[in-house]
Amino acid sequence: MASPDPWQRRLSDLQLDLRIERNKLRELMGSLEALERRMEAGTSTGETIDSAALRLQSLYTGVERCLLLILRVLNGGTPEGGDWHRRLLDRMAIATESRPAVLSPEVQAGLAELLAFRHVVRHLYAYDLDADRVRQLLQRAIAVWPEIEADLERFQAWLQELGQG
To answer: Which of 28, 39, 56, 67 would you label with 147, given CA atoms 20 to 30 Å apart?
Structure first.
């Protein structure tokens, strides 16, 4: 029996890694939706806001992890420089010779908001966070999640076709 082609193995591993990350993101979204319900019911506290902020940061980080996995396999490396997070996000909304665009412009814009917020969360004390801004971003993240998931599923389908071709 012949051993699998290394390229096919990398594509298969990428598909598995993306499925694992998407499952983690779905679970995270469930917790964000629960936090939103608590906020809507008026039962939120400062800790609820802190938790939502941390989980919104995790949402972006998880999506970025998916983008990095894709980039490492299909482009052979990761961006460099101080603004690499932003450049990664921008690049993944553009098709290249080696892959279709991973993100739609709408998803890229929504994720850009979360990227900027992640920077704020990492550099402020939790009690300095603007509760209204956290609520707005929570609602925005919940609204854009189906589009994020659809983009990742569409890309996963392309990977599967590529692996079969």
So the answer is: 39
